[in-house]
Design goal:
With 187 residues, the protein is an all-alpha fold. It has 9 helices and 2 strands, in the order H-H-E-H-H-E-H-H-H-H-H.
Length: 187
């Protein structure tokens, strides 16, 4: 993903060699007689929808007689679902006229993974994503209030009126206690 994202151009031999060798490392095998650019063309075709012209004279069309799919001898099972999903998304984005590239989407994540987890970045991440008990209690309280509110709205009107009166009395008691605490003389 990073090699696809950082390539200089679609015809740069160094980029094509790197992308092609990485595709072969993933387990992509091409039929005998396929051009040297074949692995790079397969990678670009599958994972980068922004490519206009595939290297090696391949066509972007999946059903074209000169499609990179025709050059495939075998494709790794681990990538089948990713490949199918990517092709579906590329088809939709093409139909809607929205440029989309899996490599552009995944490259930042891949860079973070390959960079490794330094202790400092881990601590920063933990501080940023730390779940606090007070946040959980607040969430549960909000959730509970929503559930009670929905349950009360489903009650018959006379019962809702009685519950509202009780809730009002409780609220007045709480306010009175709070006022008493505020105006209590210091000892």
């Amino acid at each position: 993903m990073i090699a696809l994202d950082e390539r200089v151009s679609d015809e740069n031999p160094a980029d094509l060699d790197l992308i092609g060798s990485l595709a072969l490392e993933l387990g992509v095998e091409l039929a005998d007689g396929a051009p040297a650019e074949g692995p790079a063309a397969v990678a670009m075709w599958l994972f980068d929808g922004s490519v206009e012209n595939l290297p090696g004279g391949y066509d972007k069309g999946e059903l074209s007689p000169n499609s990179p799919v025709k050059a495939l001898k075998s494709f790794p099972q681990d990538l089948v679902l990713v490949g199918r999903s990517t092709i579906l998304i590329k088809g939709l984005s093409s139909r809607l006229g929205i440029p989309w590239s899996l490599s552009k989407e995944w490259a930042p994540v891949a860079r973070r993974v390959l960079k490794g987890n330094s202790r400092q970045s881990d601590e920063t991440e933990l501080k940023r994503h730390k779940i606090r008990i007070k946040d959980v209690v607040k969430l549960l309280k909000t959730w509970g209030q929503g559930k009670v509110s929905r349950a009360v709205t489903r009650l018959p009107s006379p019962l809702r009126t009685k519950l509202a009166a009780i809730a009002l009395k409780l609220q007045k008691r709480r306010e009175a206690k709070a006022t008493k605490r505020r105006h209590k003389p210091a000892e």
